[in-house]
Amino acid sequence: MHGAGGAILGMVLTIPLSRRLLPALGLAIRVVAGAIWLVAGIAKVADLSHFHTQVEQYRLLPGVFEAPFAYALPFVEILIGLYLLVGLLIRPAAIGACALMVLFLVAQIQAWVRGLVLDCGCFGALAHERVGLGTILRDVALGLPALVMAVRPARLASLDSRLLGLPDAFAGSPPADAPGAEPHPMTLNRSEED
After folding, report:
1. What total number of domains does the chain contain?
2. What is the pLDDT along the chain (194 residues), one digit of tens a residue?
3. Domain boundaries, position 53
4. Looking at the domain assignment, is residue 56 inside a domain?
5. Which pTM does this prediction carry?
6. How far apart, in Å, are the Cα atoms of 110 and each of 94, 115, 117, 136?
7. Is residue 2 situated within a structural domain?
8. 25 domain-assigned
């Protein structure tokens, strides 16, 4: 074990510092993405009837779909946030987050263009902001961490890495089965640690 530890340390020290920091940076971005969705979902669950009213004010969905959408969406947001935080199915969760963010942006833009005066509803009763350019730009910014995870899933300290053996794409490590690929020292498999 001591010899393997020394070999790993030697491998880590030969990697440039910027490359060694990428997995940690990716993890931080993934945690931010997960936290955004978790906070948004929990804030809506705290007052579902208020969020239902906010959904109605957009006047975008047929009435029969407003209540199911308003009562289901916060739980979908919580699930996306949890999946991103624990690092399970990171890419699908991030793609789902991006799809929802596009939906939210379309809803806000159409409301703004139509001159509707309403509360964004993005964070339920936690934050009251009138739909406009500011909320649209804010949501674009809030969607960026999920977009980064959809393109390059960060799998340091993730269930994707642990259970599925997926490489940390954010760190730029090649797939484990790529010809001549050596495992990235930050994402060693369990068998290599023994």
Report:
1. 1
2. 455 555 554 555 555 666 678 899 999 999 999 999 999 999 999 999 999 999 999 999 998 999 999 999 999 999 999 999 999 999 999 999 999 999 999 999 999 999 999 998 888 878 888 999 999 999 999 999 999 999 999 999 999 999 999 999 877 654 444 444 444 444 444 444 44
3. 21-176+183-193
4. yes
5. 0.79
6. 24, 9, 12, 11
7. no
8. yes
